[in-house]
Amino acid sequence: MATPGTADIEDLIARIALGERAALTSLYDKTSAKLLGVAIRILKDRAAAEDVLQETYIKIWHNADRYAANGLSPMTWLITIARNGAIDRYRKKRDTVDYESHAETLQSADVGPEGAAIAGSQARRIVECLDELSEDRRDAIRQVYLDGASYADCAKSLKVPLNTVRTWLRRGLLTLRECLSR
Amino acid sequence: MSVADTYRDDPVLAAEFALGLLAGEDRVEATRLYVGDRAFAAEADAWTERFAIMNDEFEEVQPRKRVKRVLEERLWGDATGGVRRRGRLGWLVSGLMAAMLAAIAWTEISPYMTPRGELPAAVAELANADTGLRAVAFVKPDEHVLEFAVVEGTAPEGRVLELWAIQGDSAPQSLGLVGSGAQRVVLPDEITAANLQLAISEEPPGGSTTGAPTGEILAIAPVTGL
Fold it and tell me: Which of A75, A109, A173 has its CB closest to that of B41?
């Protein structure tokens, strides 16, 4: 699967917002392997991941008209919906709360084009800033992002108390934030 | 002290939220902020975009073929996008037409006849003279599917039609957007033909985003057993 262009995906999302089925089918053909990869990485279960994949496209179908309101690039938006869906599925087994669907579909408060521009311009800078972190913190953040680990998961895998891991990771995020604002 | 009380002084809450570190109530509260607070949403989006540089590390995995087919059924109840094999669609349309004829015949002659053959177990005729909309639905409980077609009328200009199932006193549950021609809708597991009403509402393009009907209900009818 060739990496689809941003303009391509944006165009498809706009057409989906108008209710064009063929646009969703085309988006599926271009992006489903990537989104399934995201869900499988987090859920480690193909059948559950394929179900999350379907739910992801159902959310995209119903929320495409809200896409323009957030500050995300199109592929990030799609991946984030899939990632949040997989994380919710994974945690539902343990947590008792019902997450609101807004998080899954990223129906944010209207961030508008300025927000989007800021998000885009700062994205690349993070590579340098992640490199400034200690290796174990950087690895932990990667594990959190790629495997969908929560603080509790990190505490378990690092065998340290929850509050310790929280403080330790938050310090890493603060360092990142300072680096990004330099 | 909850997230909502402290977030303005918390420089990394948006990052924690974007990463998915928060769980339970904290995640719910942060989600509320994300929906309602513009500054927080912008910051969370900025973090999401930054962390997205790791997206390259997610490896692509091709979904199995049937995943797409089931998705199309979940979304639209059939696959009129031209992706399904013609033979199968043809079968569906002819099956639906046969069922419609049977139903029309049934309403005309039901006092005199016992239905035979493969009639659906339950039927609904959604008709509203004021809105000019008329649709027919057949429920096949064994397969847990609903066959559905709008016979007369269309959505208002710039709007789309959405089909809803209302089970007893429960809130309406979307069965998806109404396309042209015959549709086959796989019913959610919890829906049964007993004490079921169907409704069609007019909605903005793409359908209701709230999970409930937002436009006018153009037609509603109970599903009755044959």
Answer: A109
